[in-house]
Design a protein that fits this description.
The protein is an alpha+beta fold and about 230 residues long. It contains 10 helices and 9 strands. About 45% of the residues lie in helices and about 15% in strands. It starts with 10 loop residues before the first helix and ends with a helix. InterPro entries: ArsR-like_HTH (IPR011991), HTH_ArsR_DNA-bd_dom (IPR001845), HTH_Metal-responsive_Reg (IPR052543), WH-like_DNA-bd_sf (IPR036388), WH_DNA-bd_sf (IPR036390).
Length: about 230
């Protein structure tokens, strides 16, 4: 006697479909892209950037929260929304790269300032970041695969004031595909620490609410001196 067939999709496939469904709506996609600047935003701020009513935004945010793509942090009377983690940011960055494949390269509509330097969640992206990654790889600061910082890299990064976390629970170092340059920039804990150090040293300035990053005069000189990269 044969058992009845179970046609229900496996749990993994169902979870994947749920996440894809949560992202497959233009307003929700714009919210996720806005949160790629690594900061936490209020619902009101997200309403403004997406240009939708508060009630509509609330429904979208609920779906994104339920899918595990966002988390909500309460502080006083305010509620802030941010990406659930660097893995979600990595997924979005990769999807941006895949989305660009349909374009008839090499023409790009990405604004030059954003293409030059921007944040990818909590690390640096764009032409400058790709140039830094290339030099770090060439000079042996990171492994060929970009999945670890070498001893040489640790010494050199320490000279720049980059504080790596030896107990990090995320990837210590990773090659993150840059969606505008189609090459890699530095991600993981090392990428986040590098961005923090550059900001603390006054080499770059972040624009609140935007992913665009401005390289300062001091930063341009320093990046050329250390990495040979034009800031």
């Amino acid at each position: 006697m044969s058992l009845p067939a179970d046609n229900s999709p496996p749990a993994l496939e169902s979870a994947l479909a749920a996440i894809a469904s949560a992202m497959a709506e233009p307003s929700r996609a714009r919210m996720l892209c806005a949160l790629m600047d690594g900061r936490a935003w209020t619902a009101t701020e997200l309403c403004a950037v997406v240009d939708i009513a508060a009630s509509t935004a609330s429904a979208h945010l609920t779906k994104l929260l339920n899918s595990g793509l966002l988390v909500c942090v309460s502080q006083g009377r305010h509620r802030y929304y941010r990406l659930a983690g660097s893995d979600v940011a990595g997924l979005l960055e990769n999807m941006m790269g895949v989305s660009m494949r349909g374009a008839k390269a090499p023409v790009t509509r990405t604004p030059q300032a954003l293409r030059r330097a921007r944040t990818c969640y909590d690390h640096l992206a764009g032409e400058v970041a790709v140039g830094i990654y290339s030099v770090m790889q060439r000079d042996g600061w990171i492994t060929e695969a970009g999945d670890a910082v070498t001893e040489t890299g640790r010494r050199e990064l320490a000279k720049l004031g980059v504080a790596l976390d030896p107990h990090t629970r995320r990837k210590p170092c990773s090659a993150c595909l840059d969606w505008s340059e189609r090459r890699f920039h530095l991600g993981g804990d090392a990428g986040a620490a590098l961005l923090i150090a550059f900001e603390q040293r006054g080499w770059l300035q972040r624009t609140p609410g935007y992913r665009e990053v401005t390289i300062t005069e001091e930063g341009r000189s320093a990046l050329f001196r250390v990495f040979g990269v034009q800031g």
